[in-house]
């Protein structure tokens, strides 16, 4: 988690585990290559505090972190100075502009003055009860011809039913996403692969968007580029597949940003009555992690139906949050947040495609922007 907090699902799972079982980690430590590594309570709190300061922290992650810190404060293994530090962190969010976060911070902070009930409210979540059907004695006289298999028992334990083997419907023929984005034409149809049988391991890995390494079947998404119009051809002649921008997640709105006047701005597009300004934000302690706020302003008249699409080189990763509004009126500013993970020292390049309807009719433009300083991926603007 210290090295990469850009994966939201893994971050949420780790933060939850630290809140529930952080005391076990403090008492037992970690085993790194058969060498015990002690963990202090201050290490866990510093890690969670760094998550709150990360540009990848959205409203959901902040809620999880505040709950995790509150639970840690009730554990006997946490020292009094660290409990006071947790209280100060909670008080800092008592004036948050996000109502849910403000409510949690105020409620958790008030528990510090009720020591008699705090332990009961923040106690460890009890383990789930095992089904009665799972508990029993294995019979050594089990018949050889039994139709019940170990695989069936595992599926019953996980609460799944084995899916009957059947011919998979033909996969939908999709065109290359980047080729469609940049107008590179349609891709040749690829032969369909049989749908793998459902199993519990894939279900568990699916929770964290992972892919089992032992499977031989290609995963349905993302669809690898099949023609020369991929983004890899933009910055490199090698026909390597290019990463596709992650689809916007229907999550909570992006966290409140500091005033853009204190950070450098870069004009990426100013034409046909629409101006797009990019305002980057970096964290010196997390080089390579960049958050960019795209600001849309109407110059001459109202602009409607703005579509903003961005692609990055294949060595970088991009996540785009939903735009605040697709209609931009004069005097107002609409925003959209981009999160980029790039190798430190590399140059961030953007291929932008924008479409909208203005006073001159429907407009569609494409530009390549490389005006950011190379030091930006080192945490310096």
UniProtKB/TrEMBL annotation:
Residues 240-253 have a biased composition (Pro residues). It comes from the Eukaryota. GO terms for biological process: cytosolic transport; intracellular protein transport; vesicle-mediated transport. It is found in: Endomembrane system; Golgi apparatus. Residues 164-258 are annotated as: Disordered. It holds the Pfam family Adaptin_N. Keywords: Golgi apparatus, Membrane, Protein transport, Transport. Residues 261-373 form the GAE domain. One of its GO terms (cellular component) is cytosol. InterPro entries: Adaptor_Complx_Large_Subunit (IPR050840), ARM-like (IPR011989), ARM-type_fold (IPR016024), Clathrin/coatomer_adapt-like_N (IPR002553), Clathrin_a/b/g-adaptin_app_Ig (IPR008152), Clathrin_app_Ig-like_sf (IPR013041), GAE_dom (IPR008153). This is GAE domain-containing protein. It comes from Rhizoctonia solani.
């Amino acid at each position: 988690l210290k090295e990469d907090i850009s994966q939201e699902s893994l971050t949420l799972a780790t933060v939850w585990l630290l809140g529930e079982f952080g005391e076990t980690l403090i008492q037992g430590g970690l085993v790194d290559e058969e060498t015990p590594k002690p963990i202090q309570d201050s290490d866990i709190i510093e890690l969670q505090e760094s998550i709150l300061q990360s540009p990848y922290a959205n409203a959901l992650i902040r809620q999880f972190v505040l709950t995790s810190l509150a639970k840690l404060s009730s554990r006997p293994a946490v020292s009094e100075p660290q409990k006071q530090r947790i209280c100060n962190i909670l008080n800092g969010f008592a004036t948050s502009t996000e109502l849910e976060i403000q409510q949690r911070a105020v409620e958790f902070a008030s528990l510090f003055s009720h020591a008699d009930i705090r332990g009961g409210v923040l106690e460890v979540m009890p383990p789930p009860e095992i089904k009665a059907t799972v508990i029993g004695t294995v019979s050594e006289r089990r018949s050889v011809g039994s139709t019940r298999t170990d695989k069936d028992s595992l599926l019953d334990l996980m609460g799944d039913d084995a899916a009957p083997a059947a011919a998979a419907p033909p996969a939908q023929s999709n065109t290359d996403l980047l080729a469609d984005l940049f107008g590179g034409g349609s891709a040749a149809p690829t032969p369909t692969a049989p749908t793998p049988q459902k199993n519990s391991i894939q279900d568990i890995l699916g929770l964290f968007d992972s892919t089992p390494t032992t499977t031989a079947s290609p995963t349905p998404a993302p669809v690898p580029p099949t023609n020369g119009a991929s983004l890899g051809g933009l910055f490199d002649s090698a026909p390597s597949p290019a990463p596709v921008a992650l689809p916007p997640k229907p999550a909570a709105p992006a966290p409140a940003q500091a005033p853009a006047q204190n950070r450098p701005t870069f004009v990426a597009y100013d034409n046909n009555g629409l101006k797009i300004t990019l305002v980057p934000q970096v964290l010196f302690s997390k080089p390579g992690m960049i958050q960019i706020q795209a600001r849309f302003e109407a110059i001459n008249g109202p602009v409607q139906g703005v579509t903003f699409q961005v692609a990055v080189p294949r060595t970088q990763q991009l996540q785009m949050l939903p735009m605040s509004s697709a209609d931009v009126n004069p005097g107002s500013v609409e925003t959209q947040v981009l999160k980029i993970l790039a190798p430190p020292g590399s140059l961030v390049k953007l291929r932008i495609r924008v479409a909208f309807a203005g006073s001159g009719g429907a407009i569609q433009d494409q530009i390549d922007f490389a005006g950011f300083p190379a030091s930006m991926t080192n945490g310096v603007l």
